[in-house]
Design brief:
It is a multi-pass membrane protein. This is Nitrate/nitrite transporter. Pfam families: MFS_1. Keywords: Cell membrane, Membrane, Nitrate assimilation, Transmembrane, Transmembrane helix, Transport. With 439 residues, the chain is an all-alpha fold. It has a single domain, classed as Growth Hormone, Chain: A (Up-down Bundle), CATH 1.20.1250.20. It is built from 18 helices and no strands. It starts with 15 loop residues before the first helix and ends with a helix. About 2% of the residues have low confidence.
Length: 439
């Protein structure tokens, strides 16, 4: 545990731990901004390409589908190549379809680029991996949740800023057919800039970069003891039942979050007759909860664990997902826009906190297969989002879909309670906790 930070010094960039903390949430913010940049412009794109409801559903499914595969792969890649190189590669390659979507000429090409853009959603796994190897057990939950939450806010920022960016382009004389294309170039350029910054100013772990450490004969695979890194890490994680229970719970919270990001603006326009800007601001309020709510979930998990150990983390996660499910049912039945926004903010608070509490638990599942654990559980979020997309396509009604999702989330909360740790596991984690504080 030597080298891991036992405190989060927000105003400092002097240590590799804090540089990783700040740059990883910034990279994540840019990736999420790019991932959801199309969503608030869908009312414009619907008219541009003459999209049917079925085609819009396909686009929303495509936006999250490929992320499942990439998240499964990206975790073991972090074990093998280190988060620094992995993140740089994802930012640089992910920028290509983000820039390419601005060139789409019809529904088919737009769908393909939207599918490929989904790969940048795997940035979340690298973010959580990087902070997990940089921070000690007493603060790792808060570090994971805060970095993920601030990065997640990129989705909310896209909801608010993309309509404003489009309006600014139109004010400069461009027409709608050309204006949305210019607006969508911005997130791609930001990703390329971030790739350079991340490679230049971060390192893989407190001791240095994995490649340098291995060159000196230090084996880093799996970071905290290693099971061979790469696919060995994935195999070890996939054999752990706790990973699959968290796979389900993360699908229930993050999957719902992604689904709401994709449909919120259209829902407010179609259901309540709001303008594009007003709908974008309403949808953005959900995403911007991540600025503090995810961090709050991780912080509460750390505080609970300090008093009652690992079991307290699972109990908290159960309560948060249960609150999310009940709040989602309220949102589905809201009869006016004011009540809908209030209900959305309420269930959104629980949703974001549950996401933070999930990844406050991830570093304690299997330290020797951290990349595999983070990747599989992260993929669960996107499986939940894809399932919600297919549910909407099958039911054809957003309100009914939200009701079913509320019921399913409430049931999924039971998976958190089912997670148990052996006395030996808890004793080992307590020893690591005490050791980190002593150092």
């Amino acid at each position: 545990m030597t080298g891991k930070a036992t405190r989060i010094e927000l105003l400092s960039l002097s240590t590799p731990q804090m540089r990783a903390f700040h740059l990883t949430w910034m990279a994540f913010f840019v990736c999420f901004f790019a991932w959801f940049a199309c969503a608030p412009l869908m009312p414009v794109l619907k008219g541009e390409f003459g999209l049917t409801p079925g085609q819009i559903a396909n686009i929303n499914i495509a936006a999250v589908a490929v992320t499942i595969l990439v998240r499964l792969v990206i975790g073991p890649m972090c074990d093998r190549y280190g988060p620094r190189k992995t993140y740089t590669g994802l930012l640089a390659l992910g920028a290509l379809p983000v820039l390419g979507v601005a060139l789409a000429q019809n529904y088919e090409t737009f769908l393909v680029f939207r599918l490929l853009i989904g790969a940048v959603g795997a940035s979340f796994v690298i973010t959580q991996y990087h902070t997990s190897v940089m921070f000690a057990p007493n603060v790792v939950g808060t570090a994971n949740a805060a970095s993920a939450g601030w990065g997640n806010a990129g989705g909310g920022a896209a909801q608010a800023l993309m309509p404003l960016l489009l309006a600014a382009v139109l004010m400069m004389g461009a027409d709608h057919a050309f204006g949305w294309r210019i607006a969508l170039l911005v997130p791609g350029v930001l990703m390329l800039i971030m790739a350079v910054v991340y490679y230049r100013f971060t390192q893989d772990c407190p001791e240095g970069n994995y490649s340098d450490l291995r060159a000196r004969g230090i084996e880093i695979s799996g970071k905290d003891g290693g099971k061979g890194g790469g696919w060995a890490s994935f195999r070890a994680a996939s054999a752990n039942y706790r990973v699959w229970l968290l796979f389900i719970t993360y699908g229930a919270c993050f999957g719902v979050e992604i689904f709401i990001h994709n449909i919120a603006a259209m829902y407010y326009v179609d259901q309540f007759g709001l303008s594009l800007k007003a709908a974008g601001m309403a949808a953005a309020s959900f995403g911007l909860l991540a600025l503090f709510a995810r961090a709050l979930g991780g912080w509460l998990s750390d505080k609970a664990a300090r008093r009652r150990g690992l079991d307290a983390r699972t109990t908290l996660l159960f309560a948060l997902i249960l609150g999310e499910g009940l709040g989602l049912l309220w949102f589905a039945q809201a009869g006016n826009v004011a009540m809908a926004v209030v209900a959305m903010l309420m269930f959104g608070l629980f949703t974001h906190m549950a996401c933070g509490a999930t990844y406050a638990l991830v570093p304690f599942i299997d330290r020797k297969a951290l990349g595999g654990v983070a990747g599989i559980i992260g993929a669960g979020g996107n499986v939940g989002a894809v399932a919600a997309g297919f549910l909407l396509k099958g039911m054809g009604n957003v309100q009914q879909t939200l009701t079913v999702l509320g019921v399913m989330a409430t049931i999924a909360a039971l998976c958190a309670i089912a997670i148990r740790f052996s006395a030996e596991h808890k004793a080992r984690e307590q020893a690591l906790y005490d050791s980190a504080l002593a150092n």
